[in-house]
Amino acid sequence: MSMRGTTRKTDDELRSDVLAELDRNPRIGNSEIAVTVKHGAVTLNGMVLTLDEKVCAERAVKNIKGVRAVANDIEVKLPDEMRKADEGIAERIGRLLSWYSSLRNMDVHAKVDDGRVTLAGQVDFLYQEALVVERVAELEGVSAVSSQIKIRERHAIDEQEVKRQIMEALHRHANIEASGIQISIADGEVKLEGTVGAYRERDLVVEAARATAGVRDIIDNLKVR
């Protein structure tokens, strides 16, 4: 039997792939990002000018085949004029929440302190919290986003039905091999265990759970082969 295609990349090969991916990503710009790799675990260091660049760098690395873990130690270093623009950041967040149809009906408000944004309020689904955090992180002048958003409680949750919906979502996705994934649910808390073939596959499983009604929290214990 041929073993072709099953050889795992060396750390040097993986580092080269990460550097190439960061270099080609237009949303990361001319940032100074250092990359170290050990046993498939990638660590990012350096400085960027926006939180969006930091988030995009991590997301780009997760999409690379062979990456088993990511530690994002990148610092966001804003110019002085951005650090003093908290009022402008708050206004941009307000427009964001009112303009986007997917965010308009959320009961979410923000506090801004020296470019650091704290979000609070309530939403119906976990994916809505992830969406508003992602959109706010893209705004100019934002150096960090902390979420205190709560998921509204739903009465009489059928935990078996929640599990069934998550598993059906996984089976519909061509990029996910669901046979190695175990799901358990208690009081709206979903625990994900087992193995997946790639880091991006792990993210897709978490996203499927987030988008399911009744899920209030996720414990991600998935491992990348």
Explain what this protein looks like in three dimensions.
- The protein is 36% helix and 29% strand.
- The chain is α/β, with parallel strands linked by helices.
- It folds into 3 domains: 11-76, 2-Layer Sandwich (Histidine-containing Protein, Chain: A), CATH 3.30.1340.30; 80-151, GMP Synthetase, Chain A, domain 3 (2-Layer Sandwich); 159-224, Histidine-containing Protein, Chain: A (2-Layer Sandwich).
- Strands 1, 2, 3 and 4 form a 4-stranded mixed β-sheet that branches. Strands 5-6-7 form a 3-stranded mixed β-sheet, covered by helices on one side. Strands 8-9-10 form a 3-stranded mixed β-sheet.
- Helix 7 links the parallel strand 9 and strand 10.
- The chain is flat, with a radius of gyration of 19 Å.
Give the arrangement of secondary structure elements.
Layout: H1 11-24, E1 32-38, E2 41-48, H2 51-62, E3 69-72, E4 75-76, H3 80-83, H4 86-99, E5 107-113, E6 116-123, H5 126-137, E7 144-151, H6 159-172, E8 181-186, E9 189-196, H7 199-210, E10 217-224
State the main characteristics:
3 domains; Histidine-containing Protein, Chain: A; 3-stranded mixed sheet; 4-stranded mixed sheet; about 220 residues; GMP Synthetase, Chain A, domain 3; alpha/beta
